[in-house]
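Bit of a strange request maybe. I'm writing a small parser for structure token strings and I need a real example to test against, not something I typed by hand. Could someone generate the tokens for this chain?
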Amino acid sequence: LAVTLVRFAARLNGAFGVYGKAVVRAARHEGVRAGSVAPSGAAECQQRIGDALDSMLGPHYRSGVTFSCAATDTRVVATANATLRGFVPGVPDVSLQLDASAVKEQDPSVEAAAGEPET
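Reply from user aminoacidic:
Good idea to test on real output. This should exercise your parser:
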């Protein structure tokens, strides 16, 4: 019975690891999508990632995830570093470093003012 319980707990821990990876990936993509819409930027990206992680990960996993966003005139980049700690002693932690980027949408009012020739 003890061996069966340990195996079950290890498999359950593996399932939580897969879920945690998927949440970090999805949050990162949500962040770059939010930051790439004109006139948004890095602040909106970080806010969206934080909201997504807070709503989908419990404090056990959330405490091991750090992220950052950077925006230029043309791109938004989000980086997430995560250590998803195991629930069961002896099960290794899962470490991730993931990046995502998106092309930044250009503000149409700025493009129009930048020099469309008048007819």
